[in-house]
Sequence to fold (218 residues):
Amino acid sequence: MLPALLPVALPLVGGLIVGVSGPLLESAGNPVSHVASIVLVAGSMYALLAFGAGWVARSTRRAALTAWGVLVVAVVSYYATKAILGDFRVPDFNAPANGAVAFGWNEFLSMIAVWCAFATVLGPVCGLAGYFSRAGSCPLRPFQRLPFQLLIPAVVSVETTMRLTYEASGPDRAVVGPVWTVARLLSIALAFLFIAIAVVRTWRSRPTAASSAAPPPN
Fold:
């Protein structure tokens, strides 16, 4: 029973860890934790969570549902942690004169609702991509699996390019510049690796396919 639950339980635990760790590391205040928090709160990290959930799933239905659940857990735990750390404080209109603050339930719940809506759309997509990218999970040939395998490198490359464009002149440019540059280079290298693997596997399967198609000797 336990091994059967692992493909569901492990991704959910991973989503919880990522969701909680991002705000905690951000509040730690040292350079290493700051870099780690930047990576953990990135959209590509959440896409990777959903992709991984689908990769270990045992069916397309579980891939889609588990990936959605992982992102919901990550989103809720992320904003719950930020709330515990003191975010979502708004002026208390019952005592505006003395500068009192209260917890902003509207802001808190609206942010969760918005990102859970994104999770509902993108989670199953990334989960199914993860499922179809794994050799042995379905009868897809290497080049048929390749588009699904390239999803995460593409997401990382697009996100890092956008962040380098808009955050290069921000206060964190000394940190985010190297982080996103390295992430983009790694994503491009990973994409070429997946392409090379698909080419090699397809080439190696050619003699087998040719021999199986040859007529038997008389």
Strands lie at 89-91, 101-103. Residues 146 and 158 are 18 Å apart (CA to CA). The longest strand covers residues 89-91.
